[in-house]
């Protein structure tokens, strides 16, 4: 009787460790995966923050209709995290060069370094903007609810929201620094 691994593992890759698995993926695949994470997680963070803020604005506006237009600033701060992801995706996309036609004389070590750097930069920006979008949404929700109770709380809580939005800016700065070292070899 044969086991299931004997049936499906007929080549050497089935017995390979993680280093071989990670190096058998194309550097352009890593780079594009980083772009996807930067864009996707940033938009997810913005959407989550807008959901939190928007639902609280609509709920609190029942008690105090005056807060609806004033608290839309919180939604704009959430949307900024998605814009940071788009900016980073454009920067990362411009760093990618076409694969070579002659693969024998290509500098694969440099290409893998560039692919991993773009992946890490995109993942870092995406995760940072996910956290930033959620924290801006929570602060915006508190801002709307506090403003409905006491109008003097709006500016005080808005400052906290600005600090939460700064997380996304820090993430994109680190992502730009990481992407600056990612240079695919010239073909």
UniProtKB/TrEMBL annotation:
| Subcellular compartments | Membrane
A single GO cellular-component term on record: proton-transporting V-type ATPase, V0 domain
Question: Would the keyword Ribosomal protein be found if you checked this record's keyword annotation?
Answer: no
According to the record, the segments passing through the membrane are 28-51, 72-92, 112-145, 157-177
In this chain the V-ATPase proteolipid subunit C-like domain maps to: 33-92, 120-177
GO MF terms, alphabetically ordered = proton-transporting ATPase activity, rotational mechanism
Membrane topology per the entry is: Multi-pass membrane protein
For this entry, the protein name equals V-type h-atpase subunit
Q: Which organism is it from?
A: Ectocarpus siliculosus
